[in-house]
Each structure stands twice: as C-alpha cells, then as structure tokens.
Amino acid sequence: MNIAVLALQGAFIEHEQMLQRLGVETFEIRQLRDWQHPKDGLILPGGESTVQMRLLSQLGLLEPIRQAIIGGLPVFGTCAGMILLSADHLGTMDFRVRRNAYGRQLGSFHTIHHVEGIGDEVPMTFIRAPYIEEVLSGDCQVMAEVDGHIVAARQGRQMATAFHPELDEDTRLHQYFIDIVKKTAV
Ligand code: GLN
After folding, report:
1. Least packed by Cβ within 10 Å: which of 77, 128, 171, 179?
2. Spatial separation of the C-alpha atoms in residues 124 and 170, rounded to whole Å
3. 77 CB less than 6 Å from ligand 1?
4. Domains held by the chain: number
5. Which helix (H) or strand (E) holds 176?
6. Burial label, 183 (beta-carbon count in 10 A; 0-12, 13-18, 19+)
7. How far apart are the first and last CA of the chain?
8. Domain of 141: which CATH number?
9. With a 6 A CB cut-off, is 48 part of the ligand 1 pocket?
10. Over residues 177-182, mean pLDDT
C-alpha cells in the first residue's frame, strides 16, 4: 500500500509520520509529475485552502485529482483538506462548509468526542477550522457533531474531518482510512 500525501503547503508531514507509524508507505505530491506514481489513497492535509486551491490549479493537479477521486481513489481530507473536498471546491463530497467557523476567540481548541464508526474519546484539535453547515445528499454520512456542528463525514471512499487527527496520538481515524483503502484494493 502506498498513500499519496498532497505536500504543497500545510500540515502534511504529520500525516506522513502517522501513516508510517501504522506501517504504511507514503509519498509526496508536489507537482504534476508526482501524480503519475501508483497510489492506493490520497491525503489532503490542513493548511490554507485558498492557497492550496490556487497551487493545485496552477500546477495542473486540480482536474487529475478530482477525476481520480470520482473514479474511486480513497481520500481523507483534514481541515483545509475537508474544504477542498466540499461542494464549492473539488465538489466530490456532498456538503457545504463554513470556513473559519469558530470565530476569533475560539479559533483553535481541543476537545474529546465520540466518532461514529470509530468510538468514544477521539481527541480533536481544531485550528481555525471549518465545519459542515449543510449536507447535500444522503450519500454523505455524518460521523461526528460537536456543539451541533458537523465536524466529520464519510461518503463512500471519501472521508473528511474539520479537526486534525494527525496532530494527536490517537491513530484510529487514520486506521479507519487505511481500512477503506484495503477494502478498495481487494
Ligand atoms: N482556516 C483554513 C482555511 O480556511 C483551514 C485551517 C486548517 O487547515 N487548519 O483554509
């Protein structure tokens, strides 16, 4: 198994470290050429979604990535990565996000919460995070809600979290993604 990690900007190294700890090989997508490498899944990390969208478009990566996801490539987007997957961006997941949704004071916070399909006491680190303000189809399943706001969702082989599981010690969300990738590969 080899997982591509979008490495244009933001918190991608932490995803690589987490996947490596789980025994999974990773490689970085920095330019269009890297995308030719065989891959079983894709991580879209946190960072700044506006910058990431611009770079993806300039590098010619936007359409190939969108097509691969539509074609069934498993993808896990965190924070800015969740924004990228949303209806107004790549549009492969059926939800709309509100960016920087928690205001200035609460821009960054940590909590512990249940996640559907994962279990209890999942640590959640939010950094100027978005949340999902509207789910647009029944194909998209809510995995977690914090204070009435959706912060994790799954749709087929795609998953997205508003928080940063790669910044905590808990490996369950990455393991969950690896299990999706394994099922796809069979
Ligand atoms: N605020 C960023 C955005 O809107 C997301 C923050 C993050 O990824 N930690 O793109």
Report:
1. 179
2. 10
3. no
4. 1
5. helix 172-185
6. exposed
7. 11
8. 3.40.50.880
9. yes
10. 97
**Distance in Å, CA 185 to ligand 1 centroid:** 31
Considering only CA atoms, give the Rg of the chain.
15
Please, which residues bridge with residue 142 across strands?
153
Ligand 1 centre and the CA of 59: distance in Å? Answer: 20
Is 81 near ligand 1, meaning CB less than 6 Å away? no
% of residues, the chain, pLDDT over 70: 97
82 lines ligand 1 (CB under 6 A): no
For position 101, what pLDDT does the model report?
85
Task: Give the CA distances from residue 129 to residues 89, 93, 109, in Å, rounded to whole numbers and listed in that order.
Answer: 16, 18, 9
**Domain of 45, in residue numbers:** 2-185
- Give me the helices (H) in 30-171, please: 49-58, 62-70, 80-85
In 3D space, the residue among 1, 10, 50 whose CA is nearest the CA of residue 30 turns out to be: 10
User: If you measure from the C-alpha of residue 145 to the centroid of ligand 1, how many angstroms do you get, rounded to a whole number?
Assistant: 18
